[in-house]
Amino acid sequence: MQPDTVSLSQLRCFIAVIDAQSFVSAARQLALTTSGVSKTISRLEAGYGLRLLHRSTHSISPTDAGEQLIGPARAVLNGAADIDAILTHASMSAATGSVRIGAPPAFIRRRLVPLLPAFIERHPDIVLDLRASDVFVDLAEVGLDLAIRSGPLHGLPGHVRLPWFEFDWVACGSPSYLGRRGMPVTPSDLTRHDLIGFRNTRTGLIEPWRLRAESFPRSPNWRFITDDAESALLTTMEGAGIMWGPRWLAADALASGMAIEVLPDWRGNRMPMSILRRGQNLLPNRVRAVMDFLFSQAAALAKPNGPLEQHSPATL
């Protein structure tokens, strides 16, 4: 019984053996095992009930059927290579398709989702596939095109970090909580307050409060600890204590008056937000279009945060 189709892998193995005159050399060229190449050709032969190769201890040569197959097989493989080149070029050239972006869950909800209408209007043929995760991983391994991460990014070769913008971390509490407990005037006053801690999922440690003061309490009075930034904000807005978090997270609550910044004069250094991409030289146009859009929206993303240090996307 003849098979319905002949696979490209079968033809590729056959031609490699013909050219190399050796199963070992053909396997090395194809990055396969010798037995794998031999079995692939044997399956092709068995499917049609004929021999394509004369095998001996010292030589390999095509049978009559094998001789007839060589020309058409080369033509098919060359055609497949042309198709691959055409499709690759089209993929790189067209700003269409899906772009997978990994970002912290709270950043997606608070800052990326509101931008979707503008992005869809500008790029109706690109689908944004947003993956909510704080995990710092190899983008290729998890199938991501881009990742949005804050802070220093080290220890991941094969990737390019593109500075996007810088943001403040702020301490804030709800009007009801501050009305009950009073407004802290200096960092040392925090010893008399209930504090909400955020646990960094990458390190497993509670995020330090980077205030510009040596008097910050060494053993904070944690009232609540969570590894979910959105939960920390909601707990703060409910009046459970004072939180420390990125201003882009608290911006809407601060603007609406549902949260009030405390100790603004003791803010620490700003933290960078970056776009991480794979280290490939040739980026698909759909990925580049998304990156260009994100850079064009940097000011809008951080507008509630006050002055923003923006970076040009010229080095994309």
Verbal overview:
This protein is α/β, with parallel strands linked by helices. The protein folds into 3 domains: 8-93, Orthogonal Bundle (Arc Repressor Mutant, subunit A); 97-167 and 271-315, Periplasmic binding protein-like II (D-Maltodextrin-Binding Protein, domain 2, 3-Layer(aba) Sandwich), CATH 3.40.190.10; 169-266, Periplasmic binding protein-like II (D-Maltodextrin-Binding Protein, domain 2). The protein is 41% helix and 20% strand. The chain has 12 helices and 12 strands. Strands 4-3-5-12-6 form a 5-stranded mixed sheet. A hairpin with a 4-residue loop joins strand 1 and strand 2 (60-62). Helix 1 (8-20) packs across helix 4 (64-93) and helix 2 (23-30) crosses helix 3. The chain starts with 7 loop residues before the first helix and ends in a 14-residue tail after the last helix.
As for the CATH topology of the largest domain, it is D-Maltodextrin-Binding Protein, domain 2
Structural category is alpha/beta
Low-confidence stretches: 304-316
Q: In total, how many domains does the architecture comprise?
A: 3
Output the strand order for the largest sheet: 4-3-5-12-6
CATH architecture of the largest domain: 3-Layer(aba) Sandwich
The backbone outline, from C-alpha atoms, is: elongated
Rg: 30 Å
Biggest sheet architecture = 5 strands, mixed
Order of helices and strands: HHHEEHEHHEHEEEHEEHEHEEHH
Overall mean confidence score, pLDDT:
85
Tally of helical segments: 12
Distance between the termini: 55 Å
Indicate the proportion of strand residues.
15-25%
- Kindly provide the name of the CATH class of the largest domain: Alpha Beta
